[in-house]
Amino acid sequence: MSAQSVYTAGACGLVALLLAPIGWMLLASLMPESRLFDSAVSGGGLALTLEHYRALFGEREFIVPVRNSLVVAGLTTLVAVPAAALCAYALTRLPMRGKGALLALLLAVSMFPQISVIAPLFLVLRELGLIDTYPGLVLPHVTFATPLAVWLLAGFLRQLPRELEEAAMVDGAGRLRAMRDVVLPLAAPALASTAILTFLYSWNEFLFALSFTLGPERQTVPVAIALFRGRYQVPWGQVLASAVVATVPVALIVLAFQRRIVAGLTAGAVKG
Amino acid sequence: MATITLERVSRIYSGGHAVVTDVDLRVGDGELLVLVGPSGCGKSTLLRLIAGLDTPTHGRILLDDDDVTTLQPQSRDLAMVFQSYALYPHMTVYDNLAYGLRVRRIDRRTMDARIGATAEALGLAALLDRRPSQLSGGQRQRVALGRALVREPTAFLLDEPLSNLDPALRVQARTELLRLQRRLGATMVYVTHDQEEAMTMGARVAVMRAGRIEQVAPPLEVYDRPANTFVAQFIGSPPMNLLPAPALGVDAPPGTIVGIRPQDVIVGSGPLVATVDVVEPRGPDAIVHLELAGRERTPVLAIMGGAAPLPGASVKVHWRTDRLLAFDESGGRQGSLPQTADRR
Amino acid sequence: MSASVAGRADARLARLLVAPALVIVFGIALVPIAATVWESLHQRDLRLPWLGTPFIGFGNFGEALADPRFGEAVLHTLVFAAFSVPLELTLGLALALVMHHVVRGRGVARVATLLPWAIPTVVAALVWRFIFETGGGGSGVEWLTSPVAAWAPIIIADVWKTTPFVAVLLLAGLQAIDRELYDAARMDGAGPARQLVTITLPLLAPALVVAAAFRALDALRLFDLPYVMTGGGPGTATEPLSLYAFIALMQRLRVGYGSALSISVFVLTLLVALVSVRVLTRVSPGDHA
After folding, report:
1. What is the ipTM of this complex?
2. Chain A partners of C111 at a C-beta cutoff of 8 Å?
């Protein structure tokens, strides 16, 4: 059907537009520095080199920011998702006053401009000696990731029929047991979606990471990339290589979990 | 109003699954044809093919004498009433009715007149400002019907339009629909899975199974002279008794299957003896499950008016041989049965 | 167990379960925002600690209103939002429609569209900065050094990065529309264009408003892209409000004034959120009795 082929052509075009910059970034990261600024694809063939990556992990020890990002994002996810899950369960299954207000409050917090809280946060963290430490970043990340996580999980749990836990409780299980045996396995996909979105948020977060770290020891990947300083000018080759390194884990996650990610995004938004 | 003709129409999905196979059908001008069959028999697909919402893999579809097989639904001037009504949720009843007219650029005055008349006729006049979500099921059904009527199309296609209504409402709606069709002289193709509905509505009934049409005939003919065992059991409730000839004590070529409707099994007198197994009282009558005396204890269904015997009781049974139907091994109906006297 | 005892036990459990999330959010979001409000009403300059922190009421806000750089920052932020949000909605809708109708390769399309959204904004900023500095052989460099034109790469980078998010939201909305409505419309004589305008768009309106609201809120909080792409330059030509607040706070260490600036971002966000909620209730289908 020609209608199908129009849509397929459109899809190919749009996909190409979206992926082209990333492809170009990858390609450029493999080109020698001297060739980077040559206009268009000049003659002389394709000379690929790993010199930027070697410098990245050699002199610049880029492994450090990578390690920091993994730790911070990992800890954020490990703290935020369970807290959010418990909160979401309480909001959808247990009697409590002020549920609506609580949900609205959580949503409002996730819409806060982060710039509005960094000043006092910085001062407090400085008082507690948490500047330039892992907890100093994990705490703010958790704060801003939790509301969205609660929203997503609450939306999912609302659709899960209560009869399932009630059946377990009639069979003699206490509420906590029912939660563990019945709700947890069924909620696994939603928990996975939420964990992925939380991890991505923390991995990509910039403002807090920029404000609450001082030196290369604890900087995360986005900050390390942004603060690249060359001796004379911006070392584009290494910058692009670092961008690729920052993208690889994300790309892998997206490839592996694209359905989960879409499910999470739409669940959060459709509830609106 | 138009005639609808289907010539050897088939619809085969990629992968080989044939949903409709070699259908020949002709709906006359002003005729109400009912397409009936069990779920999955292809009747809805056939309707969609006529509508143009789907394209046949083989065959031709003609409206009057025009080949419309490749025409889009927009150009066929047919109206369809959907099972779930498919009312536009974001539009008022008025706008729902007006949609097709606006598309065709009918002028405002004619449009208002037509919508007004249709709304009056269907009892929707007070509801024109409401949205579908504010209507009851019955009201929504009438809006769906109104949307089709207002367009004054060449023919109507109805896909189980009453199946989502409460049973009480359904009977009433059925009668009104029949009256409407008669008054308009409208050509209608009506799809249903309810054989009772099929019998009461159609000028002719087309029974479908697994993508093929088994029989097309007026309701009484389908009932009295079913083309095969499938039609015989599908039409009529409770279903016809179908048993090998010897079991009913009938002399016939080997492999013959004999059928007798429960309505024609008379309990109370006769040369045969049976035991009552289960009785299902229905109010005015009762379905009685019998077991004929004999080694095989052949099960037979009967219908009795009045007081039914108790389970376990022994009763006399007989039937008229002219009500017996014979089917060969493949299920096709045979001519007449060799005449034999009632016997065991 | 009587009903009320079980009820009370449940309520206690509820409070317990909600506590961790509540403590986190309360402690690290609500308290700080209150603190920021407090700071904005006081004067505090970390470079001049001997001046203390006297209460100056709305002094900081008064200074902001008179500050030309503040006015420009607000203007930059609003203009950026005015350009980027409609672009993202339109392109996102196109992308969503295409993805909705494509049968084969939908998985590939989904991965492709998610990638720009998923990568760090910093990476997107750098890639596009690189493209603008090297692309088009020479003419690229002028973009980022011209006060007005420098916004183009920022807007393009933002649109590239967030269109997929909008597309995913709208795609979900598209998939929620009953397919049979299109059948009915075809029977009524409507062609594809008419179906889009009379059926798809009205029924997609709630999703569109949600997408617009999310994008508008993010546009108001714009920080990462200009910080990395232009540093706010040339001069302060590409400096949105968040960046100005950041500079005042973290670079010039004027905690009081910076807090006032960051509160104004908060106020803008609040206004947009309230407007969106209003529009959303107006636009959602259903009884309007």
Report:
1. 0.82
2. 254-255, 258
